[in-house]
Write a structure and sequence with these properties.
With 200 residues, the protein is mostly helical. It is 72% helix and 0% strand. The protein is built from 9 helices and no strands. Helix 4 crosses helix 5 (78-97) and helix 6 (124-140) crosses helix 9.
């Protein structure tokens, strides 16, 4: 026990933590959790756009990790393996619940970085927010299959061969779904702009 504490004080390397967690060491598992919780949570949040859902999915992803850690063979980076597991957890929940998948971009500016505004002048940041809201609504209105492929490819950066493996479709189907998702998104955004222009 003192040996484990000593190593914990010196901070376990990820590889050591993985091996110890496989043996049932709770502190080692906690180390892995602390190393990766933010990344897993932000992935879940980007895919669901719902903080409560993202928290639940993060917990579910780490429960899956706890159950399946023994199957990790080190053929890929641990973070890549965990990322794929988290994506699968989110996809399974989305299939069950039909939740909207929405990319979230946060831009945080300090007061010095933000441009000075004239009173009554149009707010460029607000105009950008409205555009992001229109994009968010358009993505929410995509059919679930299109939405999943769009988020995995254009938001998460997965290649078509990886998406095919994750979702269980052919590479050609993934490419086709992405193309159709982009076309539908353009159509939805065009309609949204037209409706906005008509309003007084």
């Amino acid at each position: 026990m003192t040996d484990a504490r000593k190593l914990q004080g010196d901070r376990l390397s990820e590889a050591e933590a993985i091996e110890r967690a496989k043996q049932g060491d709770a502190e080692a598992f906690e180390t892995l959790y602390n190393l990766h919780k933010r990344r897993v949570y932000s992935l879940c949040l980007r895919m669901t756009a719902n903080t409560a859902e993202a928290e639940d999915l993060t917990q579910e992803a780490f429960l899956q990790l706890f159950r399946k850690l023994g199957t990790f063979r080190g053929e890929s980076a641990f973070s890549t393996w965990l990322h794929r597991m988290a994506v699968n957890v989110v996809l399974m929940r989305l299939r069950k619940k039909g939740l909207a998948v929405v990319p979230l971009e946060e831009t945080i500016e300090t007061e010095e970085e933000s441009p000075k505004k004239e009173p009554g002048a149009p707010d460029a940041m607000l105009a950008g927010s409205v555009d992001r809201l229109q994009l968010q609504r358009a993505i929410e209105n995509l059919p679930p299959g299109y939405r999943t492929i769009f988020v995995l490819h254009d938001v998460e950066g997965y290649e078509h061969n990886e998406i095919a493996g994750l979702v269980g479709c052919s590479i050609g189907n993934s490419k086709s779904q992405l193309h159709k998702a982009r076309m539908k998104l353009r159509e939805l955004l065009k309609t949204s702009r037209a409706e906005k222009a008509i309003k007084p």
